[in-house]
Write a structure and sequence with these properties.
Layout (H helix, E strand, L loop, with lengths): L7 H12 L4 H7 L3 H4 L1 E4 L2 E4 L7 H13 L2 H10 L25 E2 L2 E2 H21 L12 E5 L6 H9 L9 E5 L4 H8 L7 E6 L6 H20 L6 H7 E5 L2 H7 L6 E3 L16 H7 L1 H20 L6 H15 L4 E7 L6 H13 L17 E3 L11 H6 L6 E8 L5 E2 L2 E2 H18 L3 H6 L7 H4 L7 E8 L2 H22 L10 H14 L3 H5 L3 H13 L2
Parallel strand pairs: 5-6, 5-7, 7-8, 8-9, 10-11, 10-12, 12-15
Antiparallel strand pairs: 1-2, 2-15, 3-4, 13-14
Helix pairs in contact: 1-4, 4-14, 6-12, 7-12, 7-15, 12-13, 13-20, 14-20, 15-20
The chain binds 6-O-phosphono-beta-D-fructofuranose.
Length: 549
């Protein structure tokens, strides 16, 4: 397999890095076409890369790197359904989830697009029944609250998209999301609910996840006990009306007591963190309705087509992924901030953390050999302007290089005014100002010119040359939310291809799960199990047992 570090492009990038003298002020002054030349469109997304530590020569070298690691061929293999997830011997076909019904894609003898639309039709019919009130709880009342029980990909995507699309949610319907096995999560999310108007979606690809199955059992007990207290029917007829499932494991769904007729399937070729556009998004489909959900899928598909069809020189996800490689491997950035100037995207960074870090936090390559360069930067962020009053200090004046993506939309969902001031415009002014400050900084002379005492001039200097990408869209529509997710999915893919890793497995999460099951008896008081632990774990468990309430 290709080792990116042995390609001519890698050598060129290493040279460019050693010669680099970042000068965004100078680069912009000398080159009036810079902003336009480094701005690109992908579907409705305008992406301005011009405030990155990027030159024409560098961009060309990044494109060469993409070609020399055969990014286009790897991308095509993914879209075609080849088994590129080698450690799990699976195809990687989240892109099939958003293909239009008129398409077809035959993979190993099956039309996966037909399969996708068969499930979508079932999800949409269910969503319509809940939304119209035709689906009634066991006592005949319509459903008002959907509680999605899932974790990881079966939670982060649905929560993030639900929050992003709150303005589109049908009045009178609410979704809640329970993920943590900390019993506080389920207790707080159900404490004020009426079981007669509540429906649980148990979402788990494997239907074996400890957290989800434990919470599902707790929810079942809560439902049946509370219904019984209210004198309502509290047996299997209640489960049938108040529990549905989303899973690839229909046998385990049935074993849990959920009627397979009330289960929505998906396939092993959909990774958990790539699954919000499958039946895993059922809570969202119910909340915003089939029409909006279809627009959401169409947004993904528009960016898929851009990624699949655009030459690398203008291919936004490919360029952003290659730029990330530049920062991680050549400029030694350890993290990447994602800063949405859209309150509705307040869970976007949390969602991206699983997408990017579970995908690319890998130390071995596809052939089992160790990686040959740094991989998998830390993604993090908070919405602007909140982050400005918290951690931006470090991005502006700290010693670490932190590339940052700024995301904003032109049209707000709620166009409020503060007297004559359009508050969204004030908000956007911050979005524009921050990338400007990060790029161009403030020199000592500029600080002095403001009359600053000499002793504190150094503390008030902004070095600038802090790289940012600005992403703008007309509005946070369902389509744009789908576009943003697909953008980051393909950025993640691009980085994984350069690093030669399997971006679609997640073996690193397994050891902790196994050990938790082994330690559980010790926590419960089993002396033999306690003695078998290492000294630190033993002492901590003993502390717990001495202090539990
Ligand atoms: O533990 C990690 C993980 O396997 C994720 O990849 C996945 O999204 C999550 O657990 C939940 O898995 P499931 O949907 O099978 O319950």
């Amino acid at each position: 397999m290709i080792d990116a570090t042995t390609t001519p492009a890698w050598g060129k990038l290493a040279r460019l890095a050693s010669e680099l003298t970042p000068d965004l002020r100078g680069w912009f002054d000398a080159d009036p076409g810079r902003a336009q030349r480094f701005s690109f469109d992908a579907a409705d997304l305008r992406v301005d890369l011009s405030k990155n530590l990027l030159t024409d020569e560098l961009l060309a070298a990044l494109v060469e790197l993409g070609e020399q690691v055969e990014l286009p061929a790897r991308r095509d293999a993914m879209f075609a359904g080849q088994r590129i997830n080698v450690t799990e011997n699976r195809s990687v076909l989240h892109t099939a989830l958003r293909r239009p019904e008129s398409d077809s894609l035959i993979v190993e003898g099956r039309d996966v697009v037909a399969d996708v639309h068969e499930v979508l039709a079932k999800v949409y019919a269910f969503a319509d029944k809940i939304r119209s009130g035709q689906w009634k709880g066991v006592t005949g009342k319509p459903i008002q609250t959907i509680v999605n029980i899932g974790i990881g990909g079966s939670d982060l995507g649905p929560v993030m998209v639900y929050e992003a699309l709150r303005p589109y949610v049908q009045p009178g319907l609410e979704c809640r999301f329970v993920s943590n096995i900390d019993p506080t999560d389920l207790a707080l999310k159900t404490q004020d609910l009426d079981p007669e108007t509540t429906l649980f979606i148990v979402a788990s690809k494997t239907f074996t996840t400890l957290e989800t199955l434990t919470n599902a059992r707790l929810a079942k007990a809560w439902l049946l006990e509370t219904l019984a207290k209210q004198g309502a029917p509290a047996g299997s007829e209640a489960i049938a009306k108040h529990f549905v499932a989303v899973s690839t494991a229909s046998d385990l769904v049935a074993a849990f007591g959920i009627d397979p007729a009330n289960a929505f399937g998906f396939w092993d070729w959909v990774g958990g963190r790539y699954s919000v556009d499958s039946a895993v998004g059922t809570a969202v489909a119910v909340a915003v309705g089939p029409q909006r959900f279809a627009e959401f899928l169409a947004g993904f598909h528009a960016v898929d087509r851009h990624f699949a069809e655009t030459p690398l020189e203008r291919n936004v996800p490919a360029l952003m992924g290659l730029l990330n490689v530049w920062y991680v491997d050549f400029l030694h950035a350890a993290s990447h901030a994602v800063l949405p100037y859209a309150q509705s995207l307040h869970r976007f960074a949390a969602y991206l953390q699983q997408l990017t870090m579970e995908s690319n936090g890998k130390g071995v390559r596809l052939d089992g050999t160790p990686v040959t360069s740094a991989t998998g930067e830390i993604f993090w962020g908070e919405p602007g302007t909140n982050g400005q009053h918290a951690f931006y200090q470090l991005i502006h004046q700290g010693t670490a290089l932190i590339p940052a993506d700024f995301i904003a939309v032109a049209t707000p969902a709620y166009p409020l005014k503060d007297g004559p001031t359009d508050v969204h415009e004030l908000f956007l002014s911050n979005f524009f100002a921050q990338t400007k400050a990060l790029a161009f900084g403030k020199t000592a002379d500029e600080v002095r010119a403001e009359g600053t005492p000499e002793a504190i001039v150094p503390a008030r200097v902004f070095p600038g040359n802090r790289p940012t990408t600005s992403i703008m869209a007309p509005a946070l529509t369902p389509s744009v939310v789908g576009q943003l997710i697909a953008l980051y999915e393909h950025i993640t893919f691009t980085q994984g291809v350069v690093w030669g890793i399997d971006s679609f497995d997640q073996w690193g999460v397994e050891l902790g799960k196994q050990l938790a099951l082994q330690i559980a008896p010790a926590v419960g008081g089993d002396q033999a199990a306690l003695q078998a632990q290492d000294a630190s774990t033993k002492a901590l468990v003993e502390y717990y047992r001495a202090h539990r309430g």
